[in-house]
Specification:
Elements lengths: L8 H13 L4 E9 L9 E6 L2 E8 L3 H16 L5 E2 L2 E2 L3 H29 L5 H14 L11 H15 L4 H10 L1 H14 L7 H21 L7 H4 L1 E2 L2 E2 L1 H5 L2 H4 E10 L5 E7 L5 E5 L7 H9 L2 H7 L5 E2 L2
Parallel strand pairs: 1-3, 7-11
Antiparallel strand pairs: 2-3, 4-6, 5-8, 8-9, 9-10
Helix pairs in contact: 1-2, 2-3, 3-5, 3-8, 4-5, 5-7, 6-7
Protein name: IpaB/EvcA family protein
């Protein structure tokens, strides 16, 4: 099956751009699977093997669309857009899994504003893909009122992503979505209007957009009397810092505090570095040795750049 599918010219160009930036080995795209008849953003996986990274498209309904989606995500990371990391644990494996999935989905909503715009620019999205995407939504969600409220969170996530995907092309699909998911669609539209008020042109804009989505999502959860996710604390989002901020002392840019959560690997209590300006988890660290006020004074006095590099904490320089 896999030999019949070839990357189209636009995807070959994307793959070339990715490989020019990819640091170790080569990136390959492979196709394996059946046709489900619908399109979703979980129809590909990535595997790192000796010699490079393999993007494996696992559903052949729209292979070139799915391949381009993965390649553009990768290209954005290689070009220095913010990444998320999961370094903390709530002490419950299943809860951690759920948190990571939802946090990643919300992060992807922000990333998709750029990814989907690029896909449309290069002709990867046509009416057929839009129809298959709608089938993907219908495959994922049950209509409201059928299953009580246990799907509320998933519906909001799915429809928010759908609004980003359809953008100006929503008119043809809105009635269908409204008929099946009226409450989720109304909540998603309210969020969407706020997050699209500002364009995304730089990694700094993207970071701001991710934090905004995390906070708006929690507001909606609380309106529905559902638990907030608190991704501002749970999820580490790589900081975007200017040259001037990198020279400042750590105290001026970050606040370090003791979390109730544990470090994922060690199960020890973690410290979180919160960015003062936006209250977002920007790094985590183990307890310093010795864990004394004097030690913290010394850490706080270090220049930001020196501290981040000493602890191998990824950051992005704001141009």
């Amino acid at each position: 099956m896999s030999e019949e599918i070839k990357l189209n010219a636009a995807n070959q160009e994307l793959l070339k751009q990715v490989n020019e930036l990819y640091p170790e080995g080569t990136v390959f795209v492979q196709f394996h699977g059946e046709k489900s008849g619908y399109v979703r953003h979980d129809q590909a996986t990535q595997k790192t093997l000796p010699g490079g990274l393999f993007i494996i498209v696992t559903d052949l309904t729209a292979p070139n669309y799915t391949a381009s989606h993965e390649l553009l995500h990768l290209l954005m990371l290689l070009r220095g857009f913010p990444q998320i990391f999961f370094q903390l644990s709530l002490g419950d494996k299943q809860l951690d899994e759920q948190m990571m999935i939802m946090s990643t989905d919300l992060y992807n909503v922000a990333m998709h504003r750029v990814v989907v715009a690029e896909q449309r620019k290069h002709g990867f999205i046509d009416e057929q893909i839009e129809q298959e995407y709608l089938k993907g939504i219908e495959h994922t969600l049950t209509p409201e009122g059928e299953k009580g409220d246990e799907e509320k969170t998933l519906r909001l996530l799915t429809l928010l992503d759908a609004l980003v995907f359809y953008g100006d092309h929503l008119d043809q699909y809105e009635e269908t979505l409204k008929a099946k998911y009226p409450e989720a669609l109304a909540a998603a539209k309210k969020m969407y209007a706020t997050i699209t008020a500002k364009p995304i042109k730089t990694p700094f804009d993207m970071r701001r957009s991710i934090i905004k989505i995390y906070s708006l999502f929690d507001q909606q959860m609380q309106e529905w009397n559902l638990p907030a996710l608190h991704n501002n604390e749970y999820t580490t989002l790589s900081p975007v810092l200017s040259e001037r901020q990198l020279r400042l002392s750590l105290r001026q840019v970050f606040e370090i505090y003791h979390s109730d959560m544990k470090e994922r690997g060690t199960k020890k209590r973690a410290y979180i570095g919160i960015r003062r300006s936006d209250r977002q988890n920007s790094f985590t660290m183990p307890a310093p040795q010795p864990e004394t006020p004097e030690m913290f004074k010394r850490i706080y006095a270090q220049p930001v750049k020196k501290f981040l590099e000493q602890h191998s904490i990824p950051y992005i320089v704001r141009k």
